[in-house]
From TrEMBL:
The keyword Cytoplasm does not apply. Signal peptide: none annotated. It comes from Lysinibacillus composti. This is MBL fold metallo-hydrolase. Residues 13-195 form the Metallo-beta-lactamase domain. One of its GO terms (molecular function) is hydrolase activity.
Length: 214
């Protein structure tokens, strides 16, 4: 049984997820900001981090990547379509906001670029990376089917969906991703979004106004 710890970080309260097992190993998803809080949580819980995974590379999801990666010597996994966004503030969105620094993150090693939908088996963490573009062209959702949850970034929220007015965004593509990749999951699957509270496919199919009439 895996444990999911959520930390809401940074100026827009982005959810970072620390997924751990009984052996005190963990994976870190979307370390968006406040690296000191993430490091403190990992050390307080006596966890051994194995890797960082990104759902996408908007600035609020990548701000702590380099600090976390260097502190724990971790590989970074990211979709191939957004590798260049890590070091390009005009793409990752930080250039739009004068009050923010330009977010420039070091590129991952070539072998850690996600090019195809695939099953990851890292120790006893078994999950599938599925492509859910629309909010951004390289958005990835991570489905932990055996454990009944999914980490979906800014694709689907409680009662809402991701914005599509940023670079590479598309409402049509986003809705297709949600219906074909997320709403097909068991209705009680816990959906962990990039912001806000968790939800389930069952709740969203019934209550989410953006999904009706697709």
């Amino acid at each position: 049984m895996l444990n999911v710890k959520s930390l809401s970080l940074g100026p827009v309260q982005t959810n970072c997820y620390i997924v751990s097992n009984k052996q005190k190993e963990c994976l870190i998803f979307d370390p968006g900001e406040e690296s000191e809080r993430i490091i403190k949580e990992v050390r307080k819980s006596n966890l051994n981090p194995l890797a960082i995974f990104l759902t996408h590379t908007h600035f609020d999801h990548i701000g702590a990547v380099d600090d976390i990666r260097k502190t724990f010597n971790l590989p970074l996994f990211v979709h191939e379509k957004e590798v260049s966004w890590l070091s390009d503030p005009s793409k990752n969105g930080s250039a739009k906001y004068a009050e923010l620094p330009n977010y420039i993150v070091g590129l991952p090693e070539k072998e850690h670029i996600i090019r195809n939908e695939q099953i990851f088996e890292i120790k006893d963490f078994i999950f599938k990376a599925v492509f859910t573009p629309g909010h951004s062209p390289g958005s990835v959702s991570y489905i932990f089917e055996n454990d009944g949850f999914a980490i979906v970034g800014d694709t689907l929220f409680e009662g809402s969906i991701g914005r599509t007015d940023l670079i590479g965004g598309s409402m049509e593509v986003l809705l297709k991703s949600i219906h074909e990749k997320l709403l097909i999951l068991p209705e009680d699957t816990i959906i962990y979004p990039g912001h806000g509270d968790y939800t389930t496919p069952g709740v969203e199919m019934e209550m989410n106004p953006f999904l009706h009439g697709f």
